[in-house]
Amino acid sequence: MRRAWIATHQGASTIQRRRAELLGRKVRACQRAIATAVPDPHDDTVIPPLWLRAADSPASQLELLGVLAAAALVPLGWFAGWLLEQVVSQLIPGTLRAYPIAAMLWAGAALGLLIIVLYDPASTFDQTVVTPWLCAQLAATFIAAGLYGIAEGWLALPESHQWWPLTPPQRPITAEDAAAILGGYDITSPGLIEAQPLNVPGERTRP
């Protein structure tokens, strides 16, 4: 589902095309392990990462410009957001049913607004530049984690629109549930003597 969502919404983005190819490789690996089939080896080819690709097209140049701008403005927040996305993704599907995109984006927006409201500029360089920059890294952490969730195709799952999509606890199976799934018990015991067909009656004749 995530691979199909990314492939549908990738547009001209080569970054998203690479993500769809990587997820497609995982899907084919699972199918190969189950069906012992050998797919076309050309399907498993993946374009190289952004820093190894030649930025020839305008789309690639815009992507490279955006990545460089994010690396220059919020390097710590970007890296921390990527780590947060990796940690939260490991909770799926055990603890979470989907990736909490709404919680990440709203948390980043709330922190950013709180920083703007509480910021009191002073005459020193640290309080004028360094402190706001560090606070921006904290807000960017959650925003980057939410954007990574969107980029990884978690919007394909409807539960990703929820605030914190917890996985419901597994309900124990009762005897009635087992009977509905497996069918009723056959309580007929085997016979002691094998059944024999009855004689077919015929016409009676005089001796």
List the helices and strands and how they pair.
Elements: H1 2-9, H2 14-35, H3 58-73, H4 75-89, H5 101-118, H6 125-151, H7 175-182
Broad shape: elongated
What structural class is derived from the secondary structure elements?
mainly alpha
Task: Write the element-wise H/E pattern from the N-terminal end onward.
Answer: HHHHHHH
Q: Give the N-to-C terminal Cα separation.
A: 84 Å
Count of individual beta strands: 0
Describe this structure in words.
The chain is mainly alpha-helical and 207 residues long. The chain folds into two domains: 1-57, no CATH class; 74-169, no CATH class. It contains seven helices and no strands. The protein has helices spanning 2-9, 14-35, 58-73, 75-89, 101-118, 125-151, 175-182. The longest helix is centred in the middle third of the chain and has 27 residues, at 125-151.
Keywords:
0% strand; 55% helix; elongated; mainly alpha; 2 domains; 207 residues
Summarize this structure briefly.
This protein is an all-alpha fold and 207 residues long. It has helices spanning 2-9, 14-35, 58-73, 75-89, 101-118, 125-151, 175-182.
